[in-house]
Amino acid sequence: MTGLLAAATRAADKRAAFRAGLASNRIQRFPGAFNPLVAKLIQEIGFEGVYVSGAVLSADLGLPDIGLTTLTEVSGRGQQIARVTDLPVLIDADTGFGEPMSAARTVTVLEDAGIAGCHLEDQVNPKRCGHLDGKAVVPAEDMVRRLRAAVSARRDPDFVICARTDAAGIEGIDAAIERAKAYADAGADLIFTEALRDAADFERFRAAVPIPLLANMTEFGKSELLSASTLESIGYNAVIYPVSTLRLAMWAAETGLREIYEQGTQAGLLDRMQHRGRLYELLQYQRYNEFDSEIFNFTLGGDQ
Question: Which residue is catalytic, options 194, 232, 237, 247?
Answer without folding.
Answer: 194
